[in-house]
């Protein structure tokens, strides 16, 4: 491995290390290890990465300028590109992902490193938000999956590769057209739903940022451009589509997770799906979401890891 690549890896990995007290505790715990910050592999040792996987983990930072995301896409292009898609073979199937547009590189990279990279690198990774599967909260072949806030479809792509039937909810028109519709054309097990999940059926104002990510239902005055979108609830969607089971619900919907749970009580009680929900959008999310989940189904076991709540009914194997 040449010196330039080692330094590049070091810089990328350093940018993803946690800061503050956690980082200081890690350094404290490494006092007796004969490594210094001048050692090119210092941070790689800390991450306990297998050296044979270093090249695959070549771009692991969220804190660079936009221009620095181009090498990340170039790396994916060289290793996984197949036409307009990336195709990544794993032990459970091939993950297919539409290649991002230039303006989406930054968000795509952040999503990719959390959602897809764990399946490509057999080593512990320093996640920003973490993957949507954790311990026994996993996708199984044949599962009916709701991907709420599908964005570029990365989680949907993983679920499809695992043989699941996926309903991808994404009300942002640009994302639906540029990514999810392309993915649906390749895989009939993906159904794209251009509606926002909430606690009511109707319409709502929906923020539309200049980038494809982090758009959300407007719950207060905003200067961000908005569009009017259709809203639905999980309970109404399940009833309208006459679905006989829901096995897994993934939700990253920018602070509307509690509204989603309000509109999913019947589904949670009847089907007890596994849940993987982001909890960091509101300061009291962890407390409120946990309470709402247990009120809907007291048989749920809840685990908190990364920045997500992972939930499974203890009665299910």
Description of the molecule:
The chain has helices at residues 3-16, 21-29, 42-47, 70-80, 105-115, 154-161, 173-186, 234-240, 257-262, 265-271, 285-296; strands at residues 81-82, 85-89, 94-98, 144-148, 165-169, 190-193, 196-197, 202-207, 226-232, 248-251, 274-278, 300-305, 308-313. With 317 residues, the chain is of the alpha/beta class. It folds into 2 domains: 3-119, no CATH class; 144-313, 3-Layer(aba) Sandwich (Rossmann fold), CATH 3.40.50.150. A 7-stranded mixed sheet has the order 6-5-4-10-11-13-12, with helices on both faces. The protein has a 3-stranded antiparallel sheet with strand order 1-2-3. A hairpin with a 2-residue loop joins β1 (81-82) and β2. The longest helix is centred in the N-terminal third of the chain and has 14 residues, at 3-16.
* Annotation field: number of helices: 11
CATH superfamily of the largest domain: Vaccinia Virus protein VP39
- The CATH topology of the largest domain is given as Rossmann fold
Helix % is 25-40%
The CATH architecture name of the largest domain reads 3-Layer(aba) Sandwich
Count of domain modules: 2
Strand order of the largest sheet: 6-5-4-10-11-13-12
Compute the CA-based radius of gyration: 20 Å
Q: Supply the helix-strand structural class.
A: alpha/beta
DSSP E strands, number? 13
Largest sheet: 7 strands, mixed
Which overall shape is indicated by the principal axes computed on the Cα atoms?
globular
Report the order of strands and helices. HHHHEEEHEHEHEEEEHEHHEHEE
Beta fraction: 15-25%
> Averaging pLDDT over every residue, what do you get?
80
Taking pLDDT < 50 over at least 5 consecutive residues as the criterion, the unreliable ranges are: 17-27, 29-65
CATH classification class of the largest domain: Alpha Beta
Q: How far from one another are the termini?
A: 45 Å
């Amino acid at each position: 491995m040449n010196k330039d690549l080692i330094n590049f890896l070091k810089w990328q990995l350093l940018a993803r290390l946690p800061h503050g007290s956690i980082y200081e505790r890690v350094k404290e715990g490494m006092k007796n290890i004969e490594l210094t910050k001048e050692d090119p592999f210092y941070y790689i040792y800390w991450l306990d990465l297998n050296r044979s996987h270093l090249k695959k983990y070549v771009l692991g930072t969220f804190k660079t300028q936009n221009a620095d995301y181009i090498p990340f896409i170039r790396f994916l292009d060289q290793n996984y590109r197949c036409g307009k898609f990336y195709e990544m073979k794993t032990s459970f199937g091939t993950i297919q992902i539409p290649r991002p547009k230039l303006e989406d590189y930054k968000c795509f990279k952040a999503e990719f490193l959390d959602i897809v990279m764990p399946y490509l690198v057999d080593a512990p990774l320093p996640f920003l938000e973490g993957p949507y599967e954790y311990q026994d909260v996993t996708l199984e072949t044949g599962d009916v999956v709701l991907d709420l806030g599908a964005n570029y479809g990365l989680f949907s792509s993983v679920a499809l590769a695992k043989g699941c039937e996926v309903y991808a909810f994404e009300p942002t028109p640009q994302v639906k057209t540029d990514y999810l519709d392309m993915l649906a054309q390749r895989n009939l097990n993906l159904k794209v739903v251009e509606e926002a999940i909430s606690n009511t059926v109707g319409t709502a104002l929906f923020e539309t940022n200049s980038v494809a990510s982090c758009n959300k239902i407007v719950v207060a005055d905003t200067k961000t451009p908005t569009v009017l979108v259709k809203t639905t609830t999980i309970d109404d969607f399940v009833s309208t589509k006459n679905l006989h089971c829901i096995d897994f619900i993934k939700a990253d919907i920018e602070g509307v997770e509690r509204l989603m749970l309000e509109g999913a009580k019947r589904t949670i009680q009847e089907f007890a799906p596994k849940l993987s929900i982001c909890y960091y959008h509101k300061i009291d999310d962890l407390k409120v979401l946990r309470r709402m989940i247990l009120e809907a189904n007291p048989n749920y076991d809840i685990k908190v890891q990364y920045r997500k709540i992972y939930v499974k009914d203890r009665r299910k194997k």
